[in-house]
Design a protein that fits this description.
The protein is built from 16 helices and 8 strands. With about 675 residues, the protein is mainly alpha-helical. It folds into 4 domains: about 140 residues, no CATH class; about 130 residues; about 120 residues, no CATH class; about 190 residues, Serine Threonine Protein Phosphatase 5, Tetratricopeptide repeat, CATH 1.25.40. It has a two-stranded antiparallel ribbon with strand order 1-2. A two-stranded antiparallel sheet has the order 3-4. It is rod-shaped and about 220 Å long. Pfam families: GLE1.
Length: about 675
């Protein structure tokens, strides 16, 4: 028999069931088989406290002592007993049953699901007779109140369960809704990100297209400007060419007029000479007749005197006639400075230019000498600074421009006269480049650009430099002096005349002289072929062509001239061929057929190496390739912009062995 506390005897009793399955493989289970009644009470109390704390219950439930729940299992001995319901299978008192039915609807508890051990199924009488009083007897009022309270609590619990169920349902729905919303948001975010990526790609594509269009426009503008600059350069070159041709035409007219005047002067002089000769002959005839007449008169007088002496008369005799000496004037014929006797070989115009340049340079040096003597120490420091700038010249646009600007600033320094710095620069250029180095060609081309840039702002630089070239080597004129025992006391005197240097009282060797001569001619060739961008070369390709024509027309073929022309062609041949083309090839053909053949005819073994180099240069068409260092780094030489039209060529042609030029 199982006696339960009074709350479980109320109407609508609660059926306790385990949360898990009731049976497993035919065996009943209990989630906590060691539960005590005290554990059940604590579980119910915790449920009540949760219900009271819930916001869904507006009025908290107060536990009453009359309910008797707190006292179950702890009843004092002095307390009165409450009603006790005994459930037995044998008997049930009619009165108690009636009274119980009037108070509380009694329900029978089925404990079929409770796990019972085999000892519990036994018919042990001691266990069957054991009765545990769970509740004391209560009055009718207290029972009704307890029933109402219990019903109220059940209703509250039911409402709470309903609310909890609805809340759980709403929570699940809200969770599902939130999940769906999150999914939508994620999809929207992904779509937005995809849209942003597409927009970003489209924007980047537009930026790239805009940048490409901008760069294309800049390139087109740059090309347009380059074309304008090239057209301007061509126009300026054509204008300069036209001016030069006009100037050459005027000079030719002046030359012709001068030649005509000289011819007329010669004719007049010849005419006057003829008249004077005739007058002299007439005077001589008259004088002879007068002399004869006087002689006759003298004879007659002598006869008279003899007669007088014989008669004793004395008379004074007149003095004998003295003839007046004849004075004849030779015609004033202008001297053509082409040769001095039979020793000097050079063109007349070349010698005149050399004389004028050296005279101006001597006047400049005479002017500078007292200035330098007054402050020699300061000018030596300035000289070292100029030499350092020249040595720092390299074959790049930046180096060329920077060194040219630095040197121009030195020339324009108000503390030092420009004449002194210009002359110092010319001397240092020649002295620094007289010795060949590993990168001599590149340095020579770069120095040519520096000289052209400087001379465009300080024109005196070019005249001084050319004068220094002529002093350093006679072949830059060009001219040659032939050895003659009658003209030179010793061979050493001749060597000093053509440019040999003395070292410790002795003349340098021929090989060293030829090496130095080649360096001078290479630097000179690099200068005349230089066409710097934006400036005009005052001693450019036209002067180089004139030099070559004069060289082949007047200079003999020997080891000195061979070294000079080979070094010059190495540096200037490429640019000369670019401008004069077929005319330059005619020059080379003349060198190959006449000059080289004349060298071979000499039979000098020292010339064989030079002959081989010249032949290789002409036969291998080396003049078609750019010389090493010819093009400055990161630059476009203005020579690339020189038009190749035939009308820019001057009238150069060969006739027999001589080359004529019209300037």
């Amino acid at each position: 028999m199982l006696i339960l506390p009074s709350p479980f005897l109320l109407r609508g009793a609660i059926k306790l069931e385990p949360r898990c399955a009731k049976t497993v493989n035919g065996l009943s289970i209990d989630p906590n088989p060691n539960w005590s009644f005290q554990d059940l009470l604590s579980e119910l109390n915790s449920l009540e406290s949760k219900l009271n704390a819930s916001p869904l219950n507006p009025k908290p439930l107060d536990k009453s002592a009359s309910r008797g729940v707190q006292g179950v299992g702890r009843r004092d001995k002095n307390e009165k007993k409450a009603f006790v319901m005994r459930v037995t299978d044998d008997e049930l008192d009619d009165e108690e049953e009636a009274e119980a039915r009037t108070l509380v609807p009694v329900g029978r508890f089925a404990c079929n699901d409770i796990y019972m051990s085999e000892s519990d199924d036994s018919e042990d009488e001691s266990m069957r007779q054991l009765q545990i009083p769970l509740m004391e007897k209560m009055g009718v009022t207290e029972g009704a109140l307890l029933e109402l309270t219990h019903e109220y609590q059940l209703g509250i619990k039911e409402n709470i369960r309903n609310h909890i169920s609805s809340l759980e349902t709403e929570l699940v729905a809200e969770k599902e809704k939130s999940a769906s919303v999150l999914v939508q948001v994620e999809k929207s975010s992904e779509a937005r990100r995809e849209m942003d990526r597409k927009l970003d790609m489209q924007y980047q594509r537009r930026i790239a297209e805009a940048l490409d269009d901008h760069l294309t426009a800049i390139q087109r503008d740059h090309e347009h400007r380059s074309q304008i600059e090239e057209r301007k350069i061509r126009d300026d070159a054509a204008l300069e060419e036209a001016k030069r041709k006009e100037k050459a035409l005027q000079e030719e007219k002046l030359r012709q007029q001068k030649a005509k005047a000289e011819e007329e002067a010669r004719r007049e002089a010849a005419k006057r000479a003829e008249e004077e000769r005739k007058a002299a002959e007439e005077a001589e005839r008259v004088a002879k007749e007068a002399a004869e007449k006087r002689a006759k008169e003298n004879l007659a007088k002598s006869a008279v005197n003899v007669k007088t002496e014989a008669t004793g008369e004395k008379k004074h005799t007149a003095p004998a006639f003295q003839s007046i000496p004849l004075i004849t004037s030779a015609p004033t014929i202008p001297k053509e400075v082409q040769t001095t006797g039979n020793l000097l070989r050079a063109a007349g115009n070349a010698l005149k230019l050399e004389e004028r340049r050296l005279l101006k340079y001597k006047e400049l040096e005479d002017k500078n000498q007292p200035i330098i003597s007054s402050s020699a120490k300061e000018f030596r420091s300035k000289e070292r600074e100029i030499a350092r700038r020249i040595k720092q010249i390299t074959g790049s646009v930046a180096a060329v421009r920077s060194k040219a600007n630095e040197l121009v600033k030195l020339f324009n320094d108000p503390h030092y006269p420009q004449s002194v710095t210009v002359a110092t620069f010319a001397k240092k250029v020649i002295s620094i480049f007289e010795t060949p180095t590993a990168n001599f060609n590149s340095s020579a081309f770069a120095c040519g650009h520096v000289i052209v840039y400087i001379s465009a702002q300080v024109p005196a630089v070019m005249d001084c430099l050319l004068a220094e070239f002529h002093k350093a080597s006679i072949y830059t004129v060009p001219k040659h002096i032939i050895y003659s025992k009658s003209a030179f006391e010793t061979k050493e005197a001749y060597f000093r005349t053509i440019g040999y240097k003395e070292e410790e009282g002795k003349l340098e060797t021929t090989d060293k002289y030829l090496e130095r001569l080649g360096s001078y001619m290479k630097l000179y060739g690099a200068l005349v072929q230089t066409e710097a961008q934006g400036v005009q070369n005052m001693h450019g390709l036209e002067e180089g062509w004139v030099w070559l024509a004069r060289f082949l027309n007047y200079l003999p073929a020997n080891v000195y001239t061979a070294v000079a022309v080979e070094a010059f062609l190495r540096m200037a041949g490429f640019a000369l061929h670019r401008k004069y083309k077929s005319q330059f090839r005619k020059m080379l053909r003349a060198i190959s057929e006449q000059f080289i053949q004349a060298l071979k005819d000499r039979g000098d073994p020292k010339i064989s190496s030079v002959i081989t180099r010249l032949q290789d240069y002409i036969e291998s068409n080396v003049f078609l390739k750019e010389p090493e260092g010819w093009r400055l780094k990161d630059s476009l030489l203005s020579s690339d912009l020189v038009p190749d039209a035939d009308h820019h060529q001057q009238h150069y042609y060969s006739q027999d062995r001589h080359f004529y030029y019209q300037r």
